[in-house]
Amino acid sequence: MIYFVKKMRTLLPALAMTLLSQANLLTAGETPYIRYKVCSGQKYVYLSDLAKYYGMTLAKGREGCEIRSRAASFSFTYEKRAGLYNGVKIHYLFAPVFAAPEPLVSEKDYKLILDPLIRGARTFQKKPVKTVLIDPGHGGKDSGAQTRYREKDLNLEISRKLRTELRKKGFTVYMTRDSDVFIELENRPAKALSYKADIFISIHCNSAQDRYVRGIETYYLTPEGSPSTSDKKSKNTVEKGNSFNKQNLCLAYLIQRCALGNTGTDDRGVRHARFAALKGAPCPAVLVECGFMTNGWEEKNLAWSKYQEGIAEGIAEAIVHYNSIMK
Ligand SMILES: [Zn+2]
User: Fold this and answer.
1) For residue range 97-117, what is the model confidence (pLDDT) as tens digits?
2) 142: domain range?
3) Distance from residue 146's CA to the centre of ligand 1 (Å)
């Protein structure tokens, strides 16, 4: 009924940061020679130039392309935002395009997705994680999704298990709620400030009309000037949480990868959304949708303590990885 593909993905390099030692990677401060082209009002860059810059090889196919090195690989499908980074589904901010004979990716994707995943902490300020604030979604009068179970209860159970795992690993952990109480969405990330939290993790369970849909999704705040994953239009609003675009991405990617490795469910990808719980975060923040309560298999698992532990362990492991690149 349930299978654990335990640690499968953890065999892959954590982030491509190990790639830093590659000889042909430019040193900080050097400007790479990268050609630009404007496509439907958006600035795009030549993927062949980026591949050269990062010391990666570019392989072009009919429907899409890939850039790859020993430590990292990105897959792109033309005109589609869903792609892969080291085998984990990610969503690009804009769809890559093919302007024969050259594949192009948006400048925003280059700067806010490819570069931070490849060069890691070289692209942002390092800040080690000591304190984690866990936010069990919903509560009180707001039950969240409801099937045989109430989402607010599952969120709290998973969050408590995550707290246990993180404490075992030596982190200081707080929760926005530890009982069935209602907290305004906007007040949740604000608590990160009073607890001096270094990261904020909101825990939710998902629901969908289609009962066959299952899997994990990890969200981070949509970068300014970009569309959310479920949207076509960009928004230029800048939120507090946008100061951590790159850290948010690295944390979301690691959580998606490690949580998947511990559950064996479907990979629904790292995604972007302007959730109220993420907008006002004063530190790197992500929202994890741990699975679909509307899928029979996943509903059963989400309510099963062993499976909850698997998710909690995966997220905790990801936070350890994230912390290791922050030192
Ligand atoms: Zn929810």
Assistant:
1) 999 999 999 999 999 999 999
2) 125-325
3) 10
Q: Is 158 left (phi over 0), alpha (psi -120 to 50) or beta?
A: alpha
Phi-psi region of 94 (alpha: psi -120 to 50; beta: other; left: phi over 0): beta
CA of 124 to the centre of ligand 1 (A): 30
Quick check: 135 and 202 in contact, CB under 8 A? Answer: yes
Instruction: Say if residues 289 and 216 touch (Cβ distance below 8 Å).
Output: yes
- Between the CA of 324 and the centroid of ligand 1 the distance, in Å, is 29
Q: pTM, whole model, 2 decimals?
A: 0.91
CA of 204 relative to ligand 1 center, distance in Å: 4
Q: Where are the beta strands (DSSP E) in the chain?
A: 36-39, 42-46, 57-60, 64-68, 73-77, 82-85, 88-91, 97-99, 102-106, 131-136, 172-175, 199-206, 216-221, 267-273, 285-292
Q: Which residues pair with 130 in a beta bridge?
A: none
Residues 188 and 317 in one domain: yes
Whole-number Å distance, alpha carbon 20 to ligand 1 midpoint, is 38
| Gap from CA of 299 to ligand 1 centroid (Å) | 14
Residue 141 CA, ligand 1 centroid: distance in Å: 13
Q: What is the pLDDT of residues 240-256, one digit of tens each?
A: 999 999 999 999 999 99
- CATH code of the domain covering residue 225: 3.40.630.40
